[in-house]
Amino acid sequence: MAAIGAIDKAKVLVVGDSGVGKTSLVHLICHNEPCHNPSATIGCSVEVKFHEFRAGTPAEKDYFLELWDIGGSSSHRNSRSIFYHQVHGIILVHDLTNRKSHQNLRKWLAEVLNKDTDVRNNGKEIDPETFAGNQIPILVIGSKADSAEGLREQSTSRSSAVAEECGADELKLDSMNVKYLAPGSTNSVKLTKFLDKVIERRYSSNQVSGNRSPYDYSEDYRDKFQ
Ligand SMILES: Nc1nc2c(ncn2[C@@H]2O[C@H](COP(=O)(O)OP(=O)(O)OP(=O)(O)O)[C@@H](O)[C@H]2O)c(=O)[nH]1
């Protein structure tokens, strides 16, 4: 593993309606354990995941992924745009037992993309289908698969409409159960692929010259990873 001072980072937003399970999901991804009794997120909470980009290939390199868990309460809609700058990937979270939370993902996407000029589609109106190409990486996650097991087959098997429109992969999981992100599982492979795309988006852009970020991030993470 590289020294902490040499590790670059990228930013991923995690958005979706209040209560769909964003905090629980971020905890599972970053700590590989369930989060018991999460409290409602006010504003934003940031967790960091260590990621091996293109693991097992000659291009392998270590990165930190910041997962920005945005509180879903509608009462904070006007103030949360401050979190939407310099975004390199988006995780859209819906609750598989709550169809409305899936429909609302389009609103979340529009809210995020309209606020971030870096990821905006040249000022045009947001259409998820325009993100199927070489745009900001998106991953759709359906939570509470455990509670959704008895529901319509479509909610637990097929990809959701928003995932298809964005050309995004979709995971379905129970954030209370580590087996849903077990190494080598389909979910884990999809997540790894998404995180690799986020790194590519961040470091293949013209924001950076050469292989290094212009910033030194060592101070950010020294306490957390010592
Ligand atoms: N059974 C089950 N419960 C879950 C799952 N994910 C989250 N929960 C529960 O759903 C509730 C809300 O979860 P949170 O992670 O706080 O949801 P959130 O999206 O971060 O909510 P806000 O902070 O209000 O935006 C909690 O009681 C969690 O324990 C899941 O996959 N399965």
Would you write up a description of this structure?
By secondary structure, the chain is an alpha/beta fold. It has 8 helices and 6 strands. A 6-stranded mixed sheet has the order 2-3-1-4-5-6, with helices on both faces. Strand 2 (44-53) and strand 3 form a beta hairpin. The longest helix is centred in the C-terminal third of the chain and has 19 residues, at 186-204. The radius of gyration is 17 Å and the shape is globular. Bound molecules: guanosine-5'-triphosphate. Guanosine-5'-triphosphate (GTP) is lined by residues 18-24, 38, 40-41, 71-73, 143-144, 146-147, 174-176. Guanosine-5'-triphosphate is lined by residues 18-24, 38, 40-41, 71-73, 143-144, 146-147, 174-176.
Task: Describe the secondary-structure layout.
Elements: E1 8-15, H1 22-31, E2 44-53, E3 61-70, E4 89-95, H2 99-103, H3 105-115, E5 138-143, H4 145-148, H5 153-156, H6 161-166, E6 169-172, H7 186-204, H8 218-225
The chain binds guanosine-5'-triphosphate (GTP).
Guanosine-5'-triphosphate (GTP) is lined by residues 18-24, 38, 40-41, 71-73, 143-144, 146-147, 174-176.
